[in-house]
Write a structure and sequence with these properties.
Radius of gyration: 18 Å
Order of helices and strands: HEEHEHEHHEEEEEHH
Number of helices: 7
Shape: globular
Number of domains: 1
Strand order of the largest sheet: 3-5-8-9
């Protein structure tokens, strides 16, 4: 039975589909039947949404290409990130068009289902990490973080990992949960459960890192959804 999906932006409509009918984001890697990466996907190849093409990640950031559809983003760049990334203003994924980002917030199974977990079965343990320390949880809500300022951190290169993206101050943040606008309570619950993980990492780097994290935490609170907790 074909999967039921929200109305797609035109740029998403142009993407290839997987066997379920989901559009395959541009960053997703395709594999042959033999399990080898497919440079130019053929009909017999299959996408694996758990693997991001690190070469495209570099090109997307350097050339201003949408992480989801692969087309140029223009002036307005929106990053799909979790609440902890709003606090430390750091992400591994380049920006998207706003309509592509909103489509992901309404359609991606991992983003719309807070109980959905990352599927690690059969995942190659040697798969290249983009760098940093990943918080391996479903945050339950996501932010669409618009900013014109973003810089690479680390040692970027065309071949992939070892670098992250430092985001500038946001011009706009929209919060999403379960395919709709998130409540203040949902966002605060996610922050309260995830902040101790960030704090533990900062603690390893000493008092100055803890102070900086506290300052970033207070700054992020200004962008919470309105309403009662």
């Amino acid at each position: 039975m074909p999967v039921s999906l929200p109305e797609m932006p035109d740029r998403i409509k142009r993407l290839a589909r997987d066997e379920r009918g989901y559009p395959v984001p541009r960053f997703v890697m395709w594999f042959t039947k033999a399990g080898k990466p497919a440079q130019l996907p053929r009909e017999s190849d299959k996408p694996d949404f758990r693997y991001a093409d690190q070469g495209f990640r570099y090109l997307a950031f350097k050339r201003g290409l949408c992480w989801l559809c692969g087309e140029p983003t223009g002036t307005h760049k929106v990053y799909v990130i979790g609440p902890m990334c709003v606090i430390n203003r750091t992400t591994s994924e380049p920006a998207c068009h706003r309509d592509c980002a909103e489509y992901a917030a309404r359609a991606c199974p991992f983003l719309i289902n807070p109980r959905e977990k990352r599927n690690l079965k059969g995942l190659d343990p040697e798969a290249r990490s983009p760098g940093g320390t990943m918080i391996k949880r479903n945050p339950g809500c996501m932010a669409l973080y618009e900013t014109r300022e973003a810089v690479m951190m680390g040692a970027p290169g065309y071949d992939g990992g070892g670098w992250l993206i430092r985001l500038g101050a946001p011009e706009r943040i929209d919060w999403w949960a379960e395919g709709r606008g998130a409540t203040r309570g949902e966002v605060m619950a996610s922050i309260e459960s995830g902040y101790p993980l960030l704090f533990a990492e900062a603690k390893k780097d000493g008092p100055e890192a803890i102070h900086d994290l506290g300052r970033m935490h207070l700054a992020a609170m200004k962008f919470m959804p309105a309403g009662a907790v």
